[in-house]
Amino acid sequence: MSTVAFWSPLRGGSGSTAHTAAVASMIGMEYRVRMLLGHGGAVGERVEEAFQTGRGALDHSFISSIDCGMDALERLCLNRRLNKENIRDYTVPLMPERFDFITGNAKKEGTLPGYRSSLLPSILSCANEYYDLVLMDAGCGFEDLDSKGDGALLNHADLIVVSLTQNIQALEGFFTGGQLPAALQHKPYIIVVGRYDPHSHCTLQNMKKRFGFKGSLHGIPYSTELLDAWNMKAVLPFIHRSRHVNSHQPAAAFYESIRSVTKDIMEQLNLSSSVKRMVRGA
Description:
- By secondary structure, the chain is an alpha/beta fold.
- The protein has one domain (about 1-270).
- Helix content is about 40%, strand content about 15%.
- It contains 11 helices and 8 strands.
- It has helices spanning about 15-30, 60-65, 70-80, 115-130, 145-150, 150-155, 170-175, 205-210, 225-230, 235-240, 250-270, and strands at about 1-10, 35-40, 90-95, 100, 135-140, 160-165, 190-195, 215-220.
- It has an 8-stranded mixed sheet with strand order 3-4-2-5-1-6-7-8, with helices on both faces.
- Helix 3 (about 70-80) packs across helix 4 (about 115-130) and helix 4 (about 115-130) packs across helix 6.
- The radius of gyration is 18 Å and the shape is globular.
């Protein structure tokens, strides 16, 4: 039905990939949707670092030698054999019947270099026929957006989540630099500010005033608990545990910020009214 791409203009430090993993986990926990999570990078990179995918725990040389992940989808798509009935066969289920994951390419340039920009939109269209929601980590930076496939992810997305920081030079570059990808010039997008410090002078309110931004803007604080969960490939159980913490515990602020971003995404895609939210604690 809908595709959301997560991307940052910054080469690092914004937490874009962590935001992708956390939002996907939140949706899996709190909404009854059939969702696919993937990315435009190589196997083992980006959001794959956040989860115990089963295959991801194996040797990458083994992964690259079997017919799975984006490599398989690209070949099937080129041969016109990919469809909504078989796309799930090449994914890893993280939450049965709710949350599937697609591993990256064995090579950064893809299985079929030169074809990625044309194949990825077809793959995403097929995924949208089976899944209610597709989330894609489109990486960071402007370099080689199209050749890496990340440009195609941005262009095909219905909504883009842009990760920034409170660094004023980075904010100036984004809001006034005039070098945004074409997709951001004609698509709706949400801005999230990673490692957000509410005590800084560069608050969300001041950002909106300074740059005249009237869209959705969220602050996501740094979380030591998320870092530890990431290192253990345990973001999904971390989000599950965080559902039950009280407001005084360290993970509470991070959890509530991710929950707010997730709610905004679902509302902008008009999915919140058609999807029954789960009861917290279920």
